[in-house]
Design goal:
By secondary structure, the chain is an all-alpha fold. It is built from six helices and no strands. The termini are far apart.
Length: about 180
């Protein structure tokens, strides 16, 4: 048996082991993975409709797309796709902005907490830890809690940035299609 054949068999055996969740509970949990932040859901119809009205209104004012029904139908579909893409960009941008605001609020709380601790502890942190071990442990828990929260917001920002890049790519594709239809 050749090396390649052994590797293929090993790959197949590993693939059989990693088939995902098998229980109903595990499958239900895995099905909700992408819904945690709401960025994968379709954008709200009212928001898409508002963008659509702006796009179609601008197109109507320019006097383009009139005359042939087929072109109008294509333009309407392209306008709707462009409106959906714009709504996704706006939603992802707002999600990132929310996380940035949360990080600033967290930083403000941390600064206030640190100032409060400094006021109560005129000694250096090491001396304070020696003289007040329980309070020092509480300070460490306080700081580690903020660090975990900060890491959570950073992770959410990374997810938002990924969805924003995807939404911008969809918008670009829809805009190219829209412009191509306007030129014909």
């Amino acid at each position: 048996m050749s090396c390649a054949e052994r590797q293929r068999r090993a790959n197949r055996a590993n693939a059989m082991k990693s088939t995902g969740p098998r229980t109903a509970q595990g499958k239900a949990r895995a099905s909700r993975n992408a819904r945690r932040h709401g960025l994968t859901m379709p954008p709200p119809a009212d928001q898409v409709a508002a963008f659509y009205r702006v796009i179609v209104g601008a197109q109507t004012q320019a006097g383009r797309g009139r005359g042939r029904d087929r072109l109008d139908a294509d333009l309407e579909r392209a306008a709707w796709k462009l409106a959906e893409a714009e709504a996704r960009v706006v939603r992802a941008s707002r999600a990132i902005e929310r996380e940035i605001d949360m990080l600033f609020a967290l930083q403000t709380r941390l600064t206030k907490g640190a100032d409060e601790m400094r006021r109560h502890a005129d000694l250096g942190l090491r001396d304070y830890a020696k003289t007040h071990p329980r309070k020092a442990a509480a300070v460490n828990r306080f700081l580690s809690c903020f660090e975990r929260e900060r890491a959570t917001h950073r992770d959410r920002m990374r997810v938002g940035a990924r969805y924003l890049a995807e939404a911008e790519a969809q918008r670009h594709k829809a805009l190219v299609r829209w412009c191509a239809l306007l030129e014909t």
